[in-house]
Amino acid sequence: MSYQVKEIQTKPFEGQKPGTSGLRKRVKIFQQEHYTENFVQAIFDAVDPKGKTLVIGGDGRYYCPETVQTILRIGSANGVAKFIIGKDGILSTPAASNIIRKYKADGGILLTASHNPGGPNNDFGIKYNVSNGGPAPESVTNKIYEKTKSISTYKVIELPPIDLGKKGFSTYGPTNVEIIDSVSDYVQLLEDIFDFPLIKNFVQSRSNEFKVLFDGMHGVTGPYGRAIFVDALGLPESSVQNAIPLPDFGGGHPDPNLTYAHELVERVERDNIQFGAASDGDGDRNMIYGKGAFVTPSDSVAIIADWAAEAIPYFKKGGIHGLARSMPTSAQIDYVAKKKGLECHVVPTGWKFFGNLMDAGRLSICGEESFGTGSDHIREKDGVWAIVAWLNILAYANQQSPNELVGIKQLLEKHYAVYGRSFFSRYDYEEVSSEGAQKLVDALNEHISASSLAKTTHTSKSTGQKFTVAEVSNFDYTDPIDHSVSKNQGQVVRFDDGSRVVFRLSGTGSQGATVRMYVERYVPASAGPAELNKDTQEGLKGLIEVALEISKLREFLEREKPTVIT
Prior knowledge:
Layout: E1 5-9, E2 23-26, H1 27-30, H2 35-47, E3 53-58, H3 64-77, E4 82-90, H4 93-102, E5 107-111, E6 123-129, H5 138-150, E7 153-157, E8 168-172, E9 175-180, H6 184-193, H7 196-205, E10 212-215, H8 222-232, E11 240-241, H9 262-270, E12 275-279, E13 286-290, E14 293-295, H10 297-311, H11 313-318, E15 323-326, H12 332-340, E16 344-347, H13 351-359, E17 365-368, E18 372-375, H14 383-400, H15 408-419, E19 421-432, H16 434-450, E20 457-459, E21 466-474, E22 477-478, E23 485-486, E24 491-495, E25 500-506, E26 513-523, H17 529-532, H18 536-551, H19 553-557, E27 564-565
Parallel strand pairs: 3-4, 3-5, 4-9, 10-11, 10-12, 15-16, 15-17
Antiparallel strand pairs: 1-7, 2-6, 5-6, 8-9, 12-13, 13-14, 17-18, 19-26, 19-27, 20-21, 21-24, 22-23, 24-25, 25-26
Helix pairs in contact: 2-3, 2-5, 7-14, 10-12, 10-14
């Protein structure tokens, strides 16, 4: 077939700066003439794709299929040797990371805005991953951004669209194209990591008293959930819900937390389901929720780290080389690391920081409070991996205690009895005024500069608890592997009892600003079950009042209540 490379004249668009998770904007912005093409060309200008193999996949949201074809047109014109594409343009973010690594590709382009809503009036995103399967580091994203600011042309080869629904080999101009099954490689990966026969025996032998429910939230993980829970583990079809990926996620917000995964929470409570779990739009986040028991992401990664070497074959065989958490995440995993004699890293928010440590052999299990958990099996957080890890641990714990059913609540209580408990909650204030958000940040920075909050004592009106500020600081991080420095990664108010409050401006929204407030209070194991097993908001009530008073957050943001509490 003959083909011709055309050069299309264009002009730069302002604001095409990729964040920690790529470029995210409203769909209508990406649909502007030349907008998507400019950004795709900028990626190729930054990474020089000649002769390379690249993976393409997305979370199935609105505008994904068209963008896959755009990447084919521009990539072929820029000399890409081969594209590996998930059938129908579908690949979860963890599955894409696995494909890049398994097939030794040079990188990948992921079409996702993660947990943000989809549809013609909502969000779209484009993200570049490098050859280790992880998100592009700042050295690459900065280069892409610089290219977007000076672009004057992009190259295309105009040919009929590829049929993304047909698996197999074809060509697009000079470029080889392989359409692969979106699910099978990932399921095989998990079967190599976890003890599937143990899990299957447990969920089937205890099916009357231990029911399982997986909620795909109409995101990308529905087909993965069905392949694992129904096909591999033999659970009934009723054990998965919202399992068909939809361009608008069924009109929902595919973010697995207590607010947006309310359908799962309601069914778990109504139907007495012992193990419920949800994943987000692109499959890299997860929530674990059983009858009467919500697992915070901070507790989830700590419990996985505690049991992994004993219960999970991958870690039994390879060992654990270190643990890590993002700075806003509670210190629960730190206590596990200390007891087990493991290195524990505290990094800025952004999975790329974990990737450096993994590539250096210094990290095996890690997590973020934003419902992201993972390990060194890939270089992305992995929602379905975390869910199966929990099932593996529960199956093992029940094998060790055959006379009592160990569920989520019992596992949490056993953990707190050994390590104590970090009461933890996050308040999200979404789409607030950017000006108000900046005033909040500036006011906290003034306190840091002047040390004006240090040694001040604040009393909760409702509980009478007193909290004395020990210090206020900005979190800076020097990467121990590449020695890069990340400054101003969050403002931290520490109290002399070990409690802390963190404030961060988030970069993952597409409209206005999002301010997150993280509140943490540690209670030692010696406090006993009555104190350790309190409701989270009850355990944190006094500290939350003090945090809002100190920061004047409600005044700056002009919001009385957060959008989401987790």
